[in-house]
């Protein structure tokens, strides 16, 4: 087992969300939004196909709330055309998909789901409703693909257990292997890389990945459900650097701005579906 933890580690007191304070929070929703067409032009053919399929999912979700007639008026499309999209008989082309995504995304898509999450008085956000819903997870994965369209990603890395379901969907969407960093060493694995994430009292909080699961030359996307202080992402990025791989970027469902900015200050590209400013 190889340890790559630093001697000076981040204290858990940095995570203000656990302090019991009551922050006045401003929620900033960050979506692909403007420039999505330009991003898709840089994307691979498979990524563009996945986006077009996600738009059909969005139309199916919208159909839960409005009729075909109302949807047709909103989008300026014929009911017969919308019916083909919803039933999966045909996919909209990229340009039309972008138009539908931008018009409906703020009403029935990921943005609306995130607004409904809300923040608890102590700054804790509950994302279990999204992580347990396959439709919501597909929207999150699509948002991630759009943000990293055209970027090379060979592995998805996350920490158990919070980001595991999100990372699984992202890795399946990108069709790349996933690596899960755990707080224990699994039986049957010959060797591990170890990194210090922080401390719990007088005990070090460690993360482990199997040796060889990330290799030199890999381009790794780090995925997490919620980023607060950023110390978990710090530890994961350290594992990637140790094997001389590169961090393609960081994606999270919800990110607290102070932690995100600290990670960006380290030179990491960090994207969030929703940023919380406290």
**CATH topology grouping of the largest domain:** Rossmann fold
Beta-strand percentage range? 15-25%
Structural domain count: 2
**Low-confidence runs (pLDDT<50, min 5 residues)?**
5-27
- Termini distance? 39 Å
Number of helices in the DSSP assignment: 11
Radius of gyration: 20 Å
The order of strands across the largest sheet is 2-9-8-7-3-4
- Proportion of residues in helical segments: 40-55%
Helix-strand pattern: EEHHHHHHHHEHEEEEHEHE
Task: Summarize the biggest pleated sheet.
Answer: 6 strands, mixed
CATH class bucket of the largest domain: Alpha Beta
Q: Overall mean pLDDT score?
A: 80
Coarse structural class:
alpha/beta
Give a concise summary:
The protein is an alpha/beta fold and 278 residues long. Helix content is 41%, strand content 22%.
Tell me what you see in this structure.
With 278 residues, the protein is an alpha/beta fold. It folds into two domains: 2-30 and 122-277, Rossmann fold (3-Layer(aba) Sandwich); 36-111, no CATH class. The chain has helices at 36-42, 45-62, 68-75, 79-87, 94-108, 110-117, 128-131, 134-147, 164-174, 231-242, 257-265, and strands at 2-3, 26-29, 155-159, 178-181, 192-200, 203-210, 219-227, 246-256, 270-277. A six-stranded mixed sheet has the order 2-9-8-7-3-4, with helices on both faces. Helix 9 links the parallel strand 3 (155-159) and strand 4. Helix 2 packs across helix 4 (79-87) and helix 2 (45-62) runs antiparallel to helix 8 (134-147). The model is unreliable at 5-27 (pLDDT under 50).
